[in-house]
Design goal:
By secondary structure, the protein is α/β, with parallel strands linked by helices. It has 18 helices and 17 strands. Helix 10 links the parallel strand 13 and strand 14. Helix 2 packs across helix 3, helix 5 runs antiparallel to helix 6 and helix 14 runs parallel beside helix 17. It binds 5'-O-[(L-methionyl)-sulphamoyl]adenosine (MSP). The site of 5'-O-[(L-methionyl)-sulphamoyl]adenosine (MSP) has 18 residues, from strand 2, helix 1 and strand 13.
Length: 520
């Protein structure tokens, strides 16, 4: 059993349909998972749904459904969405699954036994409408609260708290000494700034079952359910436990709690958690402390992406300012969508979706760039040489080698946008080569037959190399290129990119446009 490259996404609240932001994060993680597999690593890719908590309970109530029925209905949509995006996830976690709930309870019992929790009562101003405690900051200078909070009552409530305070010093030191732990750097600095300038408060890890019952009961006090974040973060280890990961099953008193898995994986610590900037504190502060308290090593890296807006404004269901990924995919194809989100926005900063920007990248980079290169290269080979590949030639080999080496380095450091740019240089170079060598002119001159063979070889082989490099990003397109080249299987191993694998005498398949031009 070898250690797998274990990559996760945040698990989404199941209180509506997936939107652009959810799709973006899943595509980042999928491209990373595919890249690592292509580079020969064993990978385990986990995504899923966060089904407990107040937001879900309220959404279910609004539809007059039981929370479980409500979640079951939406979970089917979200799982179908994962398939639409062609995610290569190895498992799909739902936090209402027994395998997860049992693990959370085992972990809570363990932390309780080790003295990490205490019970205390809190008195504060409670908004019944928002179902949350308000703070002094929510109060107006005259001491009253905004009408939007509805009735605000002073409430005394018992809860369980996790002793976070004690962990502040080592976490600061850890972040200082492990610059790769949170990426990009400015997100790491944000966490460090927060930790250096604030004293951590102990974390409330329960909610009274009388006010919120849609959660995992505390095993040591059934009057309470687990606070949703203390439940959700644990998915990153409960699923490894379900797959028999020895690092995590060792925590269980009775390892039989994890049903005997068909294949046993060695997963924890995760190589990578991919998350959005809004949930950084939960992942870079609470989660490492929870892990430390459980005696588990920390994940290798937390990779933090930015947020998408549309037309310069917040994406919001209520204002109707949304991008429906399914509609875009139906109109333009999955690979055009996968391409745009990674090409347009580097992992880190915020991005802005505009339909015009999407169309112009489609036209310039997919239809006129990649699509045109593959279509004219293969069509010329078909027309002038009956689709038969000539003797290998090395004129574009160095260009291909550069793109291959750069792409490999960039994929190994999860720089997906830069990798697409590196691949783009080979597309541009090969398109230029067509214009410079003018095969359509060579074809008219019988004395240039050998030169034409050479040119066509360089073009066809470049298309093949591009299919391999693009496979993690555009899996469907890469497979189509391979099929049009008359090659079997998928271009899913990076080593296949090495120049010169098309052999003389090989007959290609039928060329067909990859990205139909659209009149716009
Ligand atoms: N359930 C929690 C996460 C628990 S992880 C143990 C949650 N769910 S969420 O559905 O609100 O968000 C899921 C992910 O989608 C988060 O990483 C979040 O940053 C991301 N996005 C939600 N809207 C987004 C954009 N508009 N743009 C990019 N990503 C965004 O938080």
């Amino acid at each position: 059993m070898s250690k797998a490259f274990y990559v996760t996404t945040a698990i989404d609240y199941v209180n509506g349909q997936p939107h652009l932001g959810h799709a973006y994060e899943k595509i980042i993680a999928d491209v990373i998972a595919r890249s690592r597999r292509s580079l020969g690593q064993e990978v385990f890719f986990l995504t899923g749904l966060d089904e407990h908590g107040q937001k879900v309970q309220q959404a279910a109530q609004a539809e007059q459904k039981s929370p479980q029925d409500y979640c079951d209905g939406l979970a089917a949509d979200w799982q179908a969405f994962a398939r639409t995006l062609q995610l290569t996830n190895d498992d799909f976690v739902r936090t209402t699954q027994p395998r997860h709930k049992e693990f959370v309870q085992a972990m809570l019992s363990r932390l309780q036994a080790a003295g990490h929790f205490y019970k205390a009562s809190y008195t504060g101003f409670y908004s019944t409408k928002e179902e949350t405690f308000l703070t002094e900051k929510d109060r107006r200078p005259d001491g009253t609260f905004d009408a939007s909070y509805g009735d605000v009552v002073e409430l005394k409530e018992d809860n369980y708290y996790f002793k976070l305070k004690a962990h502040q010093a080592w976490l600061i030191e850890y972040l200082e000494q492990n610059p790769g732990f949170v990426q990009p750097d400015y997100r790491r600095n944000e966490v460090l700034g927060f930790l250096r300038n604030n004293d951590l408060e102990d974390l409330c890890i329960s909610r009274p079952a009388s006010r919120l019952n849609w959660g995992i009961p505390l095993p040591f006090d059934p009057d309470f359910v687990t606070y949703v974040w203390f439940d959700a973060l644990v998915n990153y280890i409960s699923i490894p436990a379900a797959h028999g990961d020895p690092a995590v099953t060792a925590l269980l008193e009775n390892p039989a709690q994890a049903a005997a898995p068909a294949i046993q994986y060695d997963l924890w610590p995760a190589a990578l958690h991919v998350i959005g900037k809004d949930i950084l504190k939960f992942h870079a502060v609470y989660w490492p402390i929870m892990l430390r308290a459980m005696g588990l090593p920390l994940p290798r890296q937390i990779l933090v992406h930015g947020w998408w807006q549309k037309d310069g404004a917040k994406i919001s269901k209520s204002t109707g300012n949304i991008v429906d990924p399914i509609a875009v995919i139906n109109e333009w194809g999955l690979d055009a969508f996968r391409f745009y989100v990674l090409r347009e926005l580097n992992i880190g900063p915020d991005g802005n979706w505009t339909d015009a920007g999407f169309r112009s990248r489609y036209q310039a980079e997919l239809a006129n760039g990649l699509g045109n290169l593959v279509n004219r290269s293969l069509s010329m080979l078909k027309r002038y040489r009956n689709g038969v590949v000539g003797a290998p030639s090395k004129e574009l080999e160095a260009d291909a080698q550069n793109a291959i080496a750069e792409t490999r380095t960039l994929l190994e450091s999860n720089q997906l946008q830069a990798a697409l740019l590196a691949i783009g240089t080979l597309i541009t170079r090969a398109n230029q080569y067509v214009d410079q060598t003018a095969p359509f002119r060579l074809a008219k001159d019988p004395a240039q037959a050998e030169r034409l063979d050479e040119v066509l070889y360089n073009l066809t082989e470049s298309c093949r190399v591009l299919a391999v490099l693009l496979w993690p990003f555009l899996p469907g397109t890469a497979c189509k290129i391979y099929a049009q080249l008359g090659l079997d299987g998928a271009p899913d191993q990076f080593s296949q990119a090495a120049w010169g694998q098309l052999k003389a005498g090989h007959v290609i398949g039928e060329p067909a446009p990859l990205f139909p031009r659209k009149d716009i």
